[in-house]
Design goal:
Blueprint (H helix, E strand, L loop, with lengths): L1 H18 L7 H24 L12 E5 L5 H14 L17 H16 L5 H20 L6 E2 L26 E3 L6 E5 L3 E5 L5 E4 L40 H4 L4 H8 L5 H9 L7 H8 L16 H18 L2 H4 L23 E2 L8 E2 L13 E3 L1
Parallel strand pairs: 1-2, 1-9
Antiparallel strand pairs: 3-6, 4-5, 7-8
Helix pairs in contact: 1-2, 2-7, 2-10, 3-5, 5-10, 7-8, 8-9, 9-10
Length: 386
C-alpha cells in the first residue's frame, strides 16, 4: 500500500541522515532525525499489523493524530471552538460531589482530581491517560462536532524555549500564549505523588494569559488548585473562578529535548525502564512527563487539576505518542507489558497491577482494564501518530 512505501522512504531518508556524519553533529539535531526514523518504523509496523483487516481498526478507517503546527488553520480553529463548546454544555458531575463543576469540560478535571492518587507514578498512569484522552477526543466529536485530527504538542520542536512553540504563539490559532510577567515572585511548591514536594522557580510569566482564545475574559478555570497553595475550596472541587495562568519556562523545557526522547523510546527494552525514564530523570528532574507540565506552569503544575489548562490534552497526547511509538517498535512483546503498583508512588502500598487491573473514569464513562487500554489499534481505539 501507498503508506508503507512512504514510511519505507522516510525510514530510508532518516537512516541516511543519521548514518552520514558531517563534522561535529549537534546531538539534539541528530536525535530529532532519529525520532523521525523511529516514528517511520513504528508507523510501518502498525500498518503492517492491520493492513489485511477488513473489520475493526483498518488501514482505511484509522485516525491520524497530528502535531499542532501541522494542522490546517481551519482544524486549529475548530479544535479551539470545540473546547469552548465543552465549556458551554452542562456538567454531569453531581454538585454534591463537585459543586465547582459547572460545565462538561469540568467533568474531565473532576475525574482527574479524583483519580490522581492512583494514576500517577503508578502502573495505571499510561493506560489511564490514554483512555482519558480518548474520552476527551470522543466528547469533542460527539458533543461539539469537531471533525479534525486530535492534535499533539511535540515539545522537542521547542525544547530550548516553549515561547517559540506554535501552540503558545498567542494568536487566534494557538492555545494562547504566556501569562503576563509578574516580577519578584516566589517559587511555587507543588505536591508530588508519594508525599514529596518540588520547588518550581518563577520563569517568564506568572500572571493571567493575556492573548489568544484562552486569555483572561475568554476562558475560566473553576476547579483547584489542589497541589499548591492557596488551595481551592472543598479539596479543589469547590467553585473557584479565575483566569488561566502560565509561566513558560525555558529551564524546564530542556527536559523535553530530542535526546531525552530517544533515550526513552530507543533506550528502554521494557516498560519498567520506559516508565522510569519518562517520569524520573530526563534533562532535569521529572523526565519528559513532568517537564512538559513544569515548563508550562502555573495551572499545569497542579498534578491533580492540570487539565484546567487546555494544553494538557496535547501534552498527554504527546506522552501517549511516546508510549505508542515504543510499543510499535516491538508490537508482539511490548503491547501488553505492565509494570508498577496501583497507587501513586506505592503510597499507600498496593499490589502490582495486572492486565486485568481496573481504572475508574467516574462520570465520564465505564471502567476499563489495563488490557482494554493497551493497544492503539485494537478494541475501541484506532489511531496512529503522524
Amino acid at each position: 500500500m501507498k503508506f508503507l512505501s512512504l514510511a519505507a522512504g522516510l525510514l530510508s531518508l532518516a537512516h541516511l541522515a543519521i548514518a552520514a556524519p558531517v563534522g561535529d553533529v549537534d546531538p539534539e539535531v541528530a536525535a530529532s532525525k532519529r525520532i523521525l526514523e523511529l516514528q517511520a518504523q513504528y508507523q510501518q509496523n502498525i500498518f503492517g499489523a492491520i493492513d489485511n483487516r477488513t473489520t475493526g481498526c483498518t488501514a482505511q478507517n484509522i485516525q491520524r493524530r497530528k502535531e499542532w503546527s501541522t494542522l490546517p488553520k481551519p482544524d486549529q480553529a475548530a479544535f479551539i471552538a470545540a473546547i469552548h463548546c465543552l465549556n458551554t454544555l452542562p456538567a454531569k458531575t453531581p454538585p454534591t460531589h463537585a459543586p465547582g463543576a459547572r460545565f462538561l469540560y469540568d467533568d474531565f478535571i473532576v475525574t482527574h482530581i479524583d483519580q490522581t492518587p492512583f494514576v500517577h507514578a503508578s502502573g495505571l498512569f499510561l493506560p489511564f491517560h490514554r483512555h482519558l484522552v480518548h474520552l476527551f477526543a470522543t466528547a469533542l466529536r460527539t458533543q461539539c462536532a469537531y471533525q479534525g485530527p486530535l492534535p499533539y504538542w511535540d515539545w522537542t520542536l521547542s525544547y530550548t524555549d516553549p515561547r517559540k512553540a506554535a501552540v503558545f504563539d498567542g494568536s487566534e490559532h494557538s492555545l494562547s500564549g504566556n501569562g503576563a510577567f509578574i516580577p519578584g515572585r516566589n517559587a511555587t511548591e507543588i505536591a508530588l505523588p508519594g508525599g514529596f514536594t518540588w520547588s518550581i522557580p518563577p520563569a517568564t510569566g506568572g500572571g493571567c494569559v493575556a492573548h489568544g482564545p484562552f486569555a483572561q475574559g475568554r476562558f475560566e478555570v473553576r476547579l483547584g488548585p489542589v497541589g499548591y497553595e492557596p488551595k481551592g475550596p472543598q479539596g479543589g472541587l469547590g467553585y473557584n473562578p479565575r483566569c488561566l495562568t502560565r509561566d513558560l519556562s525555558p529551564a524546564y523545557s530542556r527536559g523535553t529535548s530530542p535526546t531525552a526522547v530517544t533515550k526513552l523510546v530507543e533506550g528502554c527494552g521494557d516498560l519498567a525502564c520506559f516508565v522510569h525514564e519518562m517520569d524520573m530523570p530526563g534533562g532535569v528532574p521529572g523526565g519528559v512527563h513532568a517537564s512538559g507540565h513544569w515548563q508550562v506552569g502555573l495551572d499545569a503544575l497542579d498534578v491533580f487539576a492540570s487539565p484546567s489548562d487546555p494544553v494538557f490534552w496535547l501534552h498527554h497526547a504527546q506522552i501517549d505518542r511516546m508510549w505508542t511509538m515504543w510499543q510499535g517498535l516491538g508490537l508482539k512483546e511490548r503491547t501488553y507489558q505492565v509494570t508498577g503498583t496501583a497507587t501513586a508512588a506505592n503510597d499507600p502500598p498496593s499490589d502490582n497491577v495486572t492486565l486485568e487491573s481496573v481504572m475508574d473514569f467516574g462520570i465520564l464513562g465505564d471502567a476499563r482494564t489495563i488490557r482494554q487500554a493497551s493497544s492503539s489499534v485494537d478494541g475501541e481505539y484506532c489511531y496512529v501518530y503522524e
